Amino acid sequence: MEKFVITKRVNNEYQFNLKAGNGEIILTSEGYVQKASCLKGIESVKINAQEDARYDRRVAKNEKDYFVLKARNGEIIGKSQYYSSNSSMEAGILSVKKNAPTAEIVDETL
């Protein structure tokens, strides 16, 4: 089952990972000082995931494809892993579109 998993980084910031049903991480957030902000980030992913225009497709310095998901205000909500091909990246975007809206939230910081 797809889920958003909230964890704490070593610097005590909160972050979330969107995981597909197979457990693979398909989107990682920035760090948040407050858990409430992290939860707002998850809600923003759920809202923006369906709009293709919110995905910024990029190529890293190592020439791997990846994407970022942006909110309406242009702020980056989450970043994907690096992919070996453009088609793999597009499959990752489809996975976020499919999984994000109904994903449960699992808080591992409790």
Automatic annotation (TrEMBL):
InterPro entries (UniProt xref): DUF1508, UPF0339_domain, YegP-like_sf
Domain of life of the organism encoding this protein: Bacteria
Domain DUF1508: 11-56, 60-107
Name of protein: DUF1508 domain-containing protein
Organism: Chryseobacterium shigense
